From TrEMBL, chain A:
Predominant subcellular localization, coarse grouping: membrane
Protein name (Swiss-Prot/TrEMBL): Na+/H+ antiporter subunit E
GO function terms (MF aspect): monoatomic cation transmembrane transporter activity
Transmembrane parts of this sequence: 12-40, 60-83
Similarity comment: family membership: Belongs to the CPA3 antiporters (TC 2.A.63) subunit E family.
Name of one Pfam family that matches: MNHE
Membrane topology summary: Multi-pass membrane protein
Compartments where located: Cell membrane
Keyword S-adenosyl-L-methionine recorded: no
Provenance organism: Pseudidiomarina taiwanensis
Domain of life, source organism: Bacteria
TrEMBL record, chain B:
Pfam name, any one: MrpF_PhaF
Subcellular localization(s) per the UniProt record: Cell membrane
Membrane spanning stretches: 6-22, 34-54, 60-83
InterPro entries: MrpF/PhaF-like (IPR007208)
UniProt protein name: K+/H+ antiporter subunit F
Membrane topology: Multi-pass membrane protein
UniProtKB/TrEMBL annotation, chain C:
Key words, A-Z: Membrane, Transmembrane, Transmembrane helix
PANTHER family: ANTIPORTER SUBUNIT MNHG2-RELATED
Protein name: Na+/H+ antiporter subunit G
Transmembrane segments: 12-35, 47-65, 71-92
Source species taxonomy: Bacteria, Pseudomonadati, Pseudomonadota, Gammaproteobacteria, Alteromonadales
GO MF, one annotated term: sodium:proton antiporter activity
Amino acid sequence: MSKILPAPWLSLFLLVFWLLLQNSVSFGLIILGAVFAVLIPLYTHRARDFSIRVRKPLILVQYAVLLLIDIIISNFNIAAVILTPRRKIKPALFEYPLDITGEVPITMLASTISLTPGTISAELGRDGRSLLIHALNVHDVEAVKRQIKERYERRLQEIFQC
Amino acid sequence: MLEFAVQFAFGAFGLALLFNVWRLIIGPETADRILALDTIYINSLALLLLLGLWHDTTSYFEAALLIAMLGFIGTVAAAKFLLRGDIIE
Amino acid sequence: MLQSLPTWADYLASALVIMGALFALIGSFGLLRLPDFMTRLHAPTKNTTLGVGGIILGSTLYFSVSSGLSLHELLIAIFLFLTAPISAHLLAKAGLHLEYKMIKETQDLRKKPEQYSDKDD
């Protein structure tokens, strides 16, 4: 199993990607896509220097839905900030202590932060234990930190068990 | 109704592109210009998709996908150059 | 030329296209009028991405209803949502390291600001 399919999720993703790209589903396309989905991970898995193991896929799906809703809400917030006079805004630049470890979870958390309400992750600290975050309009930095911790980081911790 | 919506969107994206070009011209920092270029490619990609919708054809899709990929790589390359090119050397 | 759709699809696709266009317009407007680089970074990365997402959803709906299921435009949306945070992150990093001026209302809560700067070496 692991000899032929070193990365089953990547293979599945490649197959779905191929079918979407072709924009049709037929027997021949699925066969060709399956061949690609097996060959490409075999050829590239030596270059993957991180291992990713999703322990709880269901929470991952829930996380994606939550993220989508938050993205839409954050867009309304940003639109409101842009359309109000500029005197009102109060940006902040703060460090966020990380609880999770591992490259993939931290990358996912940083991307999540960049996509959600008024925050952008700007830099990983030198020691790899904190993220520098720029927020567009906050009055209470601690509340933002708490929100990130409770809403996203805890779920990621559960998904990847790290 | 959709006809009106697409026309409205053409106008909105045209105006958005004008804003971006204005930011591209006035700068003031290099990173602002990179950001403006990034936004320009995303907006023009949306215009291309709208054009496909207007002409009822899906043949603009590949072009839009290519713009998305090349634009991302261009932005990353420019930002990397800004970070490494004139600081460490 | 545009084909005519059933009423619900017509209105839904129109709403998606108009909302996407408005978001993209607001994002570009924010790029123009926010006061400093780090705040300007917020507008296009979020709003323009969602704006294009709205256009893509509208167009997917139109093609799916008028001529068979057609989902391949979703690829562009997925790609944009994956890459927008990365380019934003790199640009923010560049802005920090080059120490672009921030407006004076910015609350700088970094403990050691110099560790993020490359200005003097």
